[in-house]
Amino acid sequence: MIKSMTGYGRGSARYEDLQLTVEIRTVNHRFAEVVLRMPKEWMAYEDLVKKIVLSHISRGRAEVQFSFGQGTVSKKVVSIDEAYALQVYQAITRLAVQLNQRTDSFFEQVVSFPGVLQVTESAVHEQALRDLIVDGLEEACHALDGMRREEGQSIREDLARRLSDLERMVADIKRLAPTVVSAYRERLEQKVRDLAPAGTVDEQRLLSEVVIFAERSDIQEELVRLHSHMQQFKHILEVTEPVGRKMDFLIQEMNREMNTIGSKANDARIATQVVECKTRLEQLREQVQNIE
């Protein structure tokens, strides 16, 4: 199924009180590119994130944003060194006795003494964090795929319609092609009769000129190749793999054949059809730039 290169996907995952949100936006790009917006301490997971995203896209620029709805990656943990606190308390008490001071208000002084209370950060377990990232990212990628497939279906229908228009126009050119030589012969004979004295027309020379013109204006090979390209284009509209580059190449080939037809045909009616065909090809080319 054809996929659009543009789309948006959102996913989320939770671990304890940590809520992670992942957003992916994709836009047109000639190659596959992934741009990450994630905390610096997560850069160890950069390759993992890119690998997952690139398993879902083969062309386009993807911007991946990680954010937290609540909770933090690390938690503050408060602990007390009881043995050290007891030593501080005993030392202060002995000094108070020697100085004849009260000893009933030393608690606040003890707990505020450097080293008694310790604050440390307990990070989310590495495997838990990895799972959190993968779960949120996969959900966002699947949502992105759904949107790109839906948009791709609309593009496929448009491409099929424009291709049908092109096939009808090429059929008209094919129908007109055999009349080009006969029309040229009639014009040539009329000019010769108008200019040459009666009875002096060289029929053999006239026939030679018509044969030369027929060879120069023969577009059958181009029409056969053009038909083949259109059939290939129609076929890849139905495949499931990425087809953007193949379609782009086929349109270039069809344009080349159409240019040759226009230069060889020497017929105003065919020239008009060629212009219309090239317009359809340009419309196809612009639309193909939007698909993977």
UniProtKB/TrEMBL annotation:
It comes from Fodinisporobacter ferrooxydans. This is YicC family protein. Residues 173-292 form the Endoribonuclease YicC-like C-terminal domain. It comes from the Bacteria. Belongs to the YicC/YloC family. The keyword Hydrolase applies. Its cofactor is a divalent metal cation. Keywords: Endonuclease, Hydrolase, Nuclease. Residues 2-156 form the Endoribonuclease YicC-like N-terminal domain. The keyword Ubl conjugation does not apply. InterPro entries: YicC-like_C, YicC-like_N, YicC/YloC-like.
